[in-house]
């Protein structure tokens, strides 16, 4: 999940200043023992600020460190994320490790991809398969009864922490939580998008969390195979009219980042499949043009799809940069490889730097064509055509 950058320059609080000091100490530590010293004190302050709902202190400190100390910024962000998605809770005199998790699904459809409440029977079946194939024996699970879109996930560290606490308490009690869909923000409509099953697990303090933590030598790969085979069909009734691909459940932030990465090539495959079905033409008849779009630096790549014998663009995909990707990484090569695997033969990567611009009238991204111009993606006249913006 891409970390937000906050650009406020107002004076930060004493707690935010202390967060920065502790994070710098951790970043500059020279031993494991000193690491533990800083980690303990940083974790104590982060926990206190979560209980206080002090989101501004987190963002203020991260903003300051982003410009002044990159390693401390990353250490602080990792600590905040870890404490937002996990904690220790007591239940009936026993301590339990709590972990917020997400099980993403990549999906595409010529129609709307649902965000939908999950029936109780389906919820119970999903818990059985998660317990059998993904999580450690004896783990207690709680699920939210809603299939989230990216727009509907918690928007702040504090919101994430509050959801973790609510689901963690439910997991220890052997129940699930019901989500009020009326309070959810509207979901943007895309041809290709991600949906999230969100829950929490509770295990006795220090016990394994996942199947691959146990001594029977299960692996992530074997867990994913069984999850696809057994858990995947459970989503069919929830994603009517969609092609979909479940990903492996994991700790919340790790799962979201994995989904962000996997959704990029998936959206290219979805585009090619959609264009073939809609136009009635094989992939060999299409051309994809790749361009890098810059503001002060490279922000993202955009891919324009159109017929190989014309300069028009029928469809567009935005490929955002993630993590440490920048001008020095061969992202364009990765995009080209993914396109060729999807069946395209005519793939052109343009060397020019495109301005990071959007349509003045509608705000949609503009995509590169074979002539090096940026244009709207516009399908030929179709009935009930979906949005032409993908992500």
Automatic annotation (TrEMBL):
Top-level lineage group: Bacteria
Name used for this protein in its record: DUF2863 family protein
Upper classification of the organism: Bacteria, Pseudomonadati, Pseudomonadota, Betaproteobacteria, Candidatus Accumulibacter
